[in-house]
UniProtKB/TrEMBL annotation, chain A:
The gene is LSM2. This is U6 snRNA-associated Sm-like protein LSm2. Belongs to the snRNP Sm proteins family. The keyword Ribonucleoprotein applies. It comes from Coemansia asiatica. Residues 91-120 have a biased composition (Low complexity). Keywords: mRNA processing, mRNA splicing, Nucleus, Ribonucleoprotein, RNA-binding, Spliceosome. Residues 2-76 form the Sm domain. The keyword DNA damage does not apply. Pfam families: LSM (PF01423). One of its GO terms (biological process) is mRNA splicing, via spliceosome. GO terms for molecular function: RNA binding. Residues 86-120 are annotated as: Disordered. CDD domains: LSm2. GO terms for cellular component: catalytic step 2 spliceosome; Lsm1-7-Pat1 complex; P-body; precatalytic spliceosome; U4/U6 x U5 tri-snRNP complex; U6 snRNP.
From TrEMBL, chain B:
Coiled coil: none annotated. The keyword RNA-binding applies. It comes from Coemansia asiatica. Its main location: nucleus. It comes from the Eukaryota. The keyword Lipid metabolism does not apply. This is LSM2-LSM8 complex subunit LSM8.
Length: 120, 90
C-alpha cells in the first residue's frame, strides 16, 4: 500500500518507466492502481528509432508486473515523508507478526502433556 | 477506458498485436477483435498477419497502448524499419 500511496502523489508528474524488455517509456503519470499498473499520457519512447512500435500511440497502460524501474524527478519527491511512512509501515508489520506469532516448542509440549493426562 | 477502441498490445515475448479492445478483467486478460500482428525487421518492411478474434491472458501482456487512428493511417508500414522488441527478462 505504501508505494501505491506514493505513486498517487506523483500523478500529473513526468515519469519514465523502464520495462523488463528494456523498453523505456516517458510520459505524464495519469493513474496508478493497487497492482502498481500505470497509465501514462502523451508518451514518447526513449530511443524511438530502435523501437518504432509505439509511434501512433499517445496514451498507454503498463502492467505493473513488467516494470523494472520508474524514473522520477527528484524535486517532486519528499524523501523525508517517504522515510517516515516506511518506518511506520515497518513498525506495523512487526506488530502484526508478533501478534500472530506461532506457539513455541515449550508451550506445545505442555499442551500435549495436559491432553494425554486428561484421557488416561 | 480503452474498450471499443483500437489498441496496440505489446506482449511479454516481444510481439506486437493491434486490434479493437472488446473487454478486459482485473488480471488484464483481454479480448481483441480483428487482431493484426505487426512484425518488425531491420531489412524488410513491417509484416502484417491477420489473426481475427483473440483472448490474450493477462500474464503475457506488458503494455496496452491506445492507438491514435489518424497517426496510424499515416504510417507507411512497408518502409518502416525496426528491430523486434526483446522478450521480457525478469
Amino acid at each position: 500500500m505504501l508505494f501505491y500511496s506514493f505513486f498517487k502523489t506523483q500523478v500529473g508528474q513526468q515519469v519514465t518507466v523502464e520495462l523488463k524488455n528494456d523498453l523505456a517509456i516517458q510520459g505524464t503519470l495519469e493513474s496508478v492502481d493497487q497492482f502498481l499498473n500505470f497509465k501514462l499520457k502523451d508518451i514518447s519512447v526513449v530511443d524511438e528509432e530502435r523501437y518504432p512500435h509505439m509511434i501512433s500511440v499517445k496514451n498507454c497502460f503498463i502492467r505493473g508486473s513488467v516494470v523494472r524501474y520508474v524514473q522520477l524527478s527528484p524535486p517532486t519527491v519528499d524523501t523525508a515523508l517517504l522515510q517516515d511512512a516506511a518506518r511506520r509501515e515497518a513498525q506495523s508489520t512487526q506488530q502484526q507478526q508478533q501478534q500472530s506469532k506461532p506457539p513455541t516448542a515449550a508451550t506445545n509440549t505442555t499442551a500435549i502433556a495436559t491432553a494425554t493426562g486428561s484421557v488416561s | 477506458s480503452y474498450v471499443d477502441q483500437k489498441v496496440s498490445v505489446i506482449m511479454n515475448d516481444g510481439r506486437l498485436v493491434v486490434g479493437t479492445l472488446r473487454g478486459l478483467d482485473q488480471t488484464t486478460n483481454i479480448i481483441m477483435q480483428g487482431c493484426q500482428e505487426r512484425i518488425f525487421s531491420e531489412d524488410e518492411g513491417v509484416e502484417v498477419v491477420e489473426l481475427g478474434l483473440y483472448m490474450i491472458r493477462g500474464d503475457n501482456i506488458a503494455v496496452i497502448g491506445l492507438v491514435d487512428e489518424n497517426k496510424d493511417k499515416e504510417l507507411d508500414l512497408e518502409n518502416l524499419r525496426g528491430i523486434p522488441l526483446p522478450p521480457l527478462k525478469h
